[in-house]
Amino acid sequence: MGVAEKNVYVALVSTILVFAAYCLILIVYWDEYQGVDATRLLGKSIFFLMLASVMTNFSLRAIANIFFPPSSSSNPSIVDERDKMIELNGLQVSYLVFTLAFITAMLTLWMGLSVVIALNIIIVGLMFGEILSGAVKIIQYRRGF
Amino acid sequence: MSKRILKNNIRALRFHQGEMTQQQLAEKVGVTRQTIIAIEMGKYSPSLELAFLISLVFDLPLNEVFSYE
Questions:
Q1: Which of A99, A130, A144, B21 has the largest CB neighbor count within 10 A?
Q2: pTM for the complete prediction?
Q3: Cβ separation of A144 and B41 shorter than 8 Å?
Q4: ipTM confidence
């Protein structure tokens, strides 16, 4: 397994963990997200979500390098054409999912639902897009394309 | 019309080239060992430039390293 492929696994696991934690927080504090201060609370949640994503990713990457150190023959600085092609394919998938989430969010606003719901749909779309992108990349690394 | 696939005999050529390892070939053409593995297993079709670089390593024309059948 190359360095780029290992980073894909790490990113996928960290996104799933952060996504699960965010969904849990949404469910637990759902009533407060419908209150008067909902948008302020949502902004605060998303800010901490971004911080948590970065910290989780760095931590998992460090743990992965400890338990699965790169072999002496692998060169982490090489990101070759296959890695770039797989990265591009993953990006296409995440953009598609995000676009669908964005359109859905706008539709909910048009239907008269709250801004909090629309923003949450966009956030979930972003995270789900990243998860799907990671899965597609792993399939392409394993099975080829 | 049956689908054509890109085949190669890089593995055999490496063996005949003084038992060159995948890592050595990867370093010569500037890619990772995993990419060479994927090319040999037919899981990845290299770009034209990479195909030419691999052929140059073995000092053979392109159609003796790769075939499109």
A1: A130
A2: 0.85
A3: yes
A4: 0.83
